Amino acid sequence: MDSHTYIDLDHHIHTTLPMEEQKRHRVEMREDVLRPVRHTGLIGKVWIVFLIAVMLVGAYAYYLQLKNGLKVTGLRDYASWGLYISNFVFFVAISLVGALISSVLRLTNFEWHRPLTRIAEIIAVAGIMFAGLIIIIDMGRPDRILNLFIHGRIQSPIVWDVIVVSTYFVSSALFLYLPLIPAIALCRDQLTNKPAWQRWMYKFLAIGWDGNDQQWKIMKRAVSILSVLVIPLAISIHTVTAWLFATTLRPGWDSTNFGPYFVAGAFQAGTACVIIAMYVFRKAYSFEKYLTDVHFNNMGKLLVFLSMVYAYFNVNEYLVPAYKMRGAEANLLNDLFTGPYSPVYWGVQVFGMALPVIILLFKPARRPLPLVIISLSVVVGAWLKRYLIVTPIMLHPYSPIQNVPPNWSVYFPTWIEISIVSASLAGVLLVITLFSKLFPMISIWETLEGEGIDLEEMDNQKS
Amino acid sequence: MKEENENNSRRKFLKFGLLAGGATIASIGLQKNIMGETPASGEKIKVMTPDGKLVEIDSTHLEKSGVDLTAYNKELRDGIAGKKFIKVIDLARCANARKCIQGCQEAHSRQAPVEFLKVIKMKETELSAPYWMPQSCNHCDNPPCTKVCPVDATFKRKDGIVAIDSERCIGCRFCMAACPYSARSFNWGENWGIAKVKADGDASCISPGENLSNRMGTVQKCDFCPEMTSRGELPACVQSCPNGTIFFGDANEDVVSNGEDTFRLSELLKKRGAYRYLEDLGTEPRVYYLPPVNRQFPFEEDTVKHNTTE
Ligand code: SF4
Ligand code: SF4
User: Fold this and answer.
1) CATH code, domain carrying A36
2) Does B173 sit within 8 Å of A140, measured CB to CB?
3) Considering its fold, how many domains does chain B have in total?
4) Residue B227's domain is classified under what CATH number?
5) What DSSP letter does each residue of B203-224 carry, written as one string?
6) Does residue A403 lie within any of the structural domains?
7) Under a CB-based contact definition with an 8 Å cutoff, are residues A268 and A306 in contact?
8) In chain A, which residues have their Cβ closer than 8 Å to the Cβ of B190?
9) Nearest CA to ligand 1 atom 6
């Protein structure tokens, strides 16, 4: 072993695969993960064009909103928050999964998380990016955004949100970037036929990585620190987001359960998102060897567990008040349980929470295809749940709604809101797609390290 | 109809500032007179003493209680010195005439669908009698709305008023979500619910801190008409109610008036069993309600739908 030998900081036991075997393995994996970066097929191109088209429609809708004011939305004085805020909460929710997969599983030594970290992190980064954007879109006066810094009041939960969301964005981006450096260096050395800007970008981002001991040490130390740091940050971003509601006196939001309830829901929704992304990447990029049935099985188990935790908080959130049926809250609960919102409410609770728990207890349901279908239902449910958390409560204030134009006492999002929200969803997908076209979606060193394979050769990439 | 209303307001025009400001000022003024500090002008003015008696004093012994508007704009965040504005609404007098809404809209150059004031039909239980309840911003002393504002664009002033700086508001609408009384409304578009676009500088009826030409995307609500009270007038809603339902005054001076009748605030609240809306929430509203007992009008269902178009 020469000076390039990787020293495992976690003291993992290295298997003693023959050197030849290890080398074959490394080269094979490198080729596998670089393939999607090397070529983009027709479907990939169509997909990217489609996402850009959706975003352009959204941009036009936002232009109209800027020009004419928020009256182009379905929002009015009673339902003064709507689709944008629901969507904001959804994006913050899915971004928590970065911390869950990359940190919690890492710190608890669940080795199988290794090939999933990058997928989880890019979902986190894309989610939090668009969460920040959508909140600006919701503002009546985005031109005054600097007031938040000039006149910011630390007592306001919005300011807390600005602080934690930006901190979480920076740390998630670092958490994505640092373990990616060896892969960027690999791209720099291998993808020499790419356009100049791309080669320049690899060179720039690789910050002179040549894989010496010192670099590995620093990078791994930094990743370890970040993985601890990111957990409290992730919990606080969603807790603070929950406080945007829980610090008010509105029946339905005025709940001390809201923080953990949101965090639990976020972990569940994010896990389902990662499962969907795993499935798509496995199919589209032929990652069957790295995203195996075992990973799906384990993620399925994780989803069951998280859905159960979420169900527990739902019981606290809905059944306890329902037992008391206190004045103003009773109207809201009745409307959710048996009134106009009941189809959505029960649909979400059953398909987004109860059924996944029951079905996923059976091993065959945790195979990739059934699991991804259930995950889709969880994600759609999670999105609708955020709608249910915002809109019905806005429309059930203490004081009766009387003598207002008919469109004020209901809330239907307009095409403007729908296009903008679709554009933001497309934006998240586009960021993930483009990222996967520029960088390997599976962390080579983390995966190989998990398999106990020596990383020596990685440092000598031109060989 | 319109003229009648104008006459009505004119009839009710009242040197409110003097009357309400009377109690404390009278004592100071009289003291000063005894000490012979200022020469008397001979012009007599009626004010109320702390024990509720109306006395005549010389006008030079009055300190100016009203503040002119330029000074007011400077003091937007502090409010009118020495004041603690308060409103009392006598539910026994409300007949759903909706004139307060109209008066408020006219004073603030607003029109449908913007109503800073709403008259809501209330009926607590199946067996209890329905009644009409004018509701607007309560200028809470523990205001949930100002607590959440990220940029201090809505704030509590020393004179009790919860005001909005529409030049600073970023339009996040958190204050609307936080207000349990649904008292706030939003400028959803250019000139949203504006009856007559006035030039900037024509400040006669504009809330302090409100920029006329740059309102879109900011929040608005009842402002307790400080620009009128500082001129010595009662707020627009008080002036326009034909039944004298709404009383306005200064808690420091313990006096409220609806333009016709003037009461000692503490006595009125005690005698009539006053309460505040949603007291349980701890918002400490500055609007008191007198329960609808011994009503002056029988309850009549409203046959017309109001404010139906945007
Ligand atoms: S009534 Fe609403 S808007 Fe007015 S001070 Fe109270 S909480 Fe704020
Ligand atoms: S809408 Fe304006 S006044 Fe209300 S909380 Fe936001 S910035 Fe403050």
Assistant:
1) 1.20.1630.10
2) yes
3) 2
4) 3.30.70.20
5) -TTPPTT--GGG-TT-EE----
6) no
7) yes
8) 68-69
9) B140
Q: Is B151 in the pocket of ligand 2 (CB under 6 A)?
A: yes
Ramachandran category for residue B12: left, alpha or beta (phi over 0 → left; psi -120 to 50 → alpha)? alpha
Domain tally for chain A?
1
For residue A19, give the 3-state DSSP assignment: helix
Same domain, B187 and B47: no
CB contact under 8 Å between B190 and A76, yes or no, is no
Q: How far is A77 from chain B (nearest CA, A)?
A: 5
**Domain limits for position A273:** 3-397+414-450
pLDDT for B20 beyond 60: no
- On whether both B172 and B275 belong to a single domain, the answer is yes
Q: Are residues B98 and B155 in the same domain?
A: yes
Band of pLDDT at residue B34, cut at 50, 70 and 90? very low
The tokens describing B39, both together, are 């020469």
The helix-helix angle for A213-246 and A83-95 (nearest 10°) equals 150
Of ligand 1's listed atoms, the one at least distance from the Cα of B221 is: 3
Facing residues of B48 across strands? B54
My answer on whether B132 and B157 are in the same domain is yes
Residues B54 and B127 in one domain: no
Residue B129 Cβ inside 6 Å of ligand 2? The answer reads: no
Are residue B112 and residue B58 in the same domain, yes or no?
Answer: no
* A455 part of a folded domain: no
Q: Are residues B122 and B204 in the same domain?
A: yes
Ligand 2 close to Cβ of residue B169 (< 6 A): yes
Nearest Cα residue in chain B from A71: B188
Provide the shortest C-alpha distance from residue A249 to chain B (in Å). 6
DSSP B139: -
3-state secondary structure of A200: helix
Pick from A296, A298, A304, A389: which is nearest to A354 by CA? A304
Statement to judge: residues B230 and B300 lie in one domain: yes
Residue whose entry in the numeric block shows the structure tokens 């969880």: A378
The pLDDT value recorded for residue B50 is 47
| CB nearest to B217's CB, from A69, A148, A404 | A69
Is it true that the peptide bond before A440 is cis, omega within 30 degrees of 0?
no
Q: Is A248 left (phi over 0), alpha (psi -120 to 50) or beta?
A: beta
| Within a domain: A148 | yes
Whether residue B145 has its Cβ less than 6 Å from ligand 1: yes
Structure tokens at B179: 């207000």
Among the three residues B64, B85, B111, which one is the final residue of a domain in this structure? Answer: B64
Q: Answer whether residue A391 is part of any domain.
A: yes
Q: Which residues contact A15 (CB under 8 A, 6 or more apart)?
A: A451, A452, A453
Spell out the per-residue pLDDT of chain A, length 463, in tens: 333 444 444 444 545 567 777 788 888 888 899 999 998 999 999 999 999 999 999 999 999 999 999 999 999 999 999 999 999 999 999 999 888 888 888 888 888 888 999 999 999 999 999 999 999 999 999 999 999 999 999 999 999 999 999 999 999 999 999 999 999 999 999 998 999 999 999 999 999 998 888 999 999 999 999 999 999 999 999 999 999 999 999 999 999 999 999 999 999 999 999 999 999 999 999 999 999 999 999 999 999 999 999 999 999 999 999 999 998 899 999 999 999 999 999 999 999 999 999 999 999 999 999 999 999 999 999 999 999 999 999 999 999 999 999 999 999 999 999 999 999 999 999 999 999 999 999 998 888 887 777 665 454 444 3
Answer yes or no: are the C-beta atoms of A128 and A421 closer than 8 Å. Answer: no
Q: CB of B97 within 8 Å of any CB in chain A?
A: no
Tokens found for residue A393: 């409560």
Reported confidence tier of residue B33, pLDDT bands at 50, 70, 90: very low
Identify the domain containing residue B37 by its residue range.
31-64
**Residue of chain A whose alpha carbon sits nearest to that of B216:** A69
